[in-house]
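Input/output pair, single chain:
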Amino acid sequence: MRFKVNISECMTEGVHTLDVGDSALAAAKLLKEKEVGSIIITDGGDAVGILTERDIIYKIVAAGQDAKKVKLKDVMSSPLKAISTSNTVQDAALAMKENKIKRLPVLDKSGKLVGIVSEGDLLRVYPGIVDIMAESPHMRGMGETD
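Output:
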């Protein structure tokens, strides 16, 4: 089954970013303020990693770290897995399944960050994508915020 829906039709634009040198506390505050589940981490303007709510809980809070002192470069997930604006919804679903992730930054042809897509975004655009996602055990808990 092949889906021809372009990823740009379901991505969220206006992605929130912080620099690798920023603190985990700054990231937690931004996540709360913007009511989002992830932030893209940049270095010199280039997207190099991602930090999720789950990263903050597991890598900082549960580890007893001081969020004011922890730098994002030390807790972000990197290298960044991303998808291009020329890709389809199916491409995104397969990339999420293969990489066991729930969010994918979207880059334009020049490599500039232009959006982000989550598994929820994919399901809203094309409910049939459930078949692909259901094959992956880590996606069975969909509906959880991560």
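The beta strands are 17-19, 38-43, 46-52, 83-84, 103-107, 113-118. The chain is about 30% helix and 20% strand.
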